[in-house]
């Protein structure tokens, strides 16, 4: 039927796009770039537009994802879109697994596609329309969560703080990012490698404060102390869980801890007085608890181990 033919056509385009992007080391790199560039300039945009139009058509009808063919079509079209956007547009062969936070170099001829609100709305509407089986709705999925953290880190890579504060929605966005970061820090056992990207964002934001000339409030003096507090208290609270449940201690990973502290030291200097007050308060509180245990006759070894 028409559905099966459509799926086959989408798969062919997807495989073709992926193959055109694949470096063939058996031929000279200059020849590969010539072929890839020609494909990019003559066909790739049309393929992306076709994929988006198919997604709009799918959304325009009642979604019946119990139908295996319809479900397969959605997945194949999404894969095609991903292959289009993953194309190595300028021959940089960027490694997405690296921490250099590379930027996708979309061709200027594609500008109108991405400036149209309908394009972004299409993918958000699709994301909310698909069941969790397909969309993995929410950030409880480690893969989704990790990529979202990487996305947040790229905000400061691609924009200056002075540009961000001029955006009308900035106060609400920075509040939500702060809440997300605090929640992430409190759940230290979940996807710990993703915290690096969140701290990268806050480190770069705070480091930019002295260079902001805009009169619009950056609000980092409000949220940076909260991030600092969440990091310190969550790490202290993790000790009891690690000791009592005999878990691997994340603080034993000295390389990661050192890296995170390097990032945090910049964040903590925003409203430094609040950071100092917090550290003194926590130190005194834990010292008092330790003294009580030392003078206790019960000799609770677990609590003693936690304090030590």
Automatic annotation (TrEMBL):
- InterPro entries referenced in this protein's UniProt entry, alphabetically: ARM-type_fold, TPR_XPO7/RBP17, XPO4/7-like
In terms of SUPFAM superfamilies, this protein maps to: ARM repeat
Tell me where it resides. Answer: Cytoplasm; Nucleus
Query: For the Exportin-7/Ran-binding protein 17 TPR repeats domain, which residue ranges apply?
Result: 239-298
Q: Does the keyword Transcription apply?
A: no
Main localisation:
cytoplasm
Keyword Protein transport attached? yes
Picking any one GO molecular function of the record gives: nuclear export signal receptor activity
* Record key words, sorted: Cytoplasm, Nucleus, Protein transport, Transport
Q: Which GO terms describe its cellular component?
A: cytoplasm; nuclear pore
Q: Name one GO biological process term.
A: protein export from nucleus
Family, as annotated: Belongs to the exportin family.
Write down what this protein is called.
Exportin-7/Ran-binding protein 17 TPR repeats domain-containing protein
Organism (species) = Cervus elaphus hippelaphus
């Amino acid at each position: 039927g028409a559905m099966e033919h459509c799926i086959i056509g989408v798969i062919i385009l997807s495989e073709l796009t992926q193959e055109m992007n694949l470096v063939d080391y058996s031929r000279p790199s200059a020849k590969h770039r010539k072929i890839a560039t020609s494909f990019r300039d003559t066909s790739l945009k049309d393929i992306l537009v076709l994929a988006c139009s198919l997604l709009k058509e799918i959304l325009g009808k009642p979604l019946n994802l119990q139908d295996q063919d319809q479900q397969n079509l959605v997945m194949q079209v999404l894969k095609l879109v991903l292959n289009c956007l993953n194309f190595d547009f300028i021959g940089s062969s960027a490694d997405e697994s690296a921490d250099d936070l590379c930027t996708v170099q979309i061709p200027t001829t594609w500008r109108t596609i991405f400036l149209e609100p309908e394009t972004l709305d299409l993918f958000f509407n699709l994301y909310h329309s698909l069941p969790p089986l397909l969309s993995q709705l929410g950030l409880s999925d480690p893969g989704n969560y990790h990529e979202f953290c990487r996305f947040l880190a790229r905000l400061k890579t691609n924009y200056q703080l002075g540009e961000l504060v001029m955006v009308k929605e900035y106060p609400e966005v920075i509040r939500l990012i702060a809440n997300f970061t605090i929640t992430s820090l409190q759940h230290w056992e979940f996807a710990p490698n993703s915290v690096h990207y969140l701290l990268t964002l806050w480190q770069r934001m705070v480091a930019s404060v002295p260079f902001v000339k805009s009169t619009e409030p950056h609000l980092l003096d409000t949220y940076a102390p909260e991030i600092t507090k969440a990091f310190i208290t969550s790490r202290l609270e993790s000790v009891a869980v690690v000791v009592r449940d005999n878990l691997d201690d994340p603080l034993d990973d000295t390389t990661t801890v050192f890296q995170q502290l390097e990032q945090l030291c910049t964040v903590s200097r925003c409203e430094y007085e609040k950071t100092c007050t917090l550290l003194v308060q926590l130190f005194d509180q834990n010292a008092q608890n330790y003294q009580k245990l030392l003078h206790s006759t019960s000799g609770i070894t677990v609590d003693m181990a936690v304090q030590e």
